[in-house]
Amino acid sequence: MNIKTFDDDAFAVDAESYFNFWCCDCNLRHLVVVEAIGNGSDVFKSNGGKIALAFSRDDAATKLSRKADKIVLYKRKQ
Fold first, then answer.
1. pLDDT at position 25, please?
2. CB crowding 47-67: b at 16 or more within 10 Å, else e
3. Domain segments of the chain as ranges
4. Global pTM?
5. DSSP 29-41
6. In what helix (H) or strand (E) does residue 24 lie, and over which residues does it extend?
């Protein structure tokens, strides 16, 4: 599986890190915490292991949620 199949802007982060993610669906900033866990996680982290992250949105569910919450998005003409 190639992560770029899901998200062209996928990126890698350290196995123990965090970052802020601006959500275009709810217009809120979310704190994303990343940590490798389980067997071998300590070795993975000490060897500088990276974790790739990609984000994907379910457009149908998003549209239904916006409709239920009466959220209307406007776009500026360019």
1. 66
2. eeeeeebeeeeeeeeeeeeee
3. 3-68
4. 0.54
5. EEEEEEE--STTH
6. none
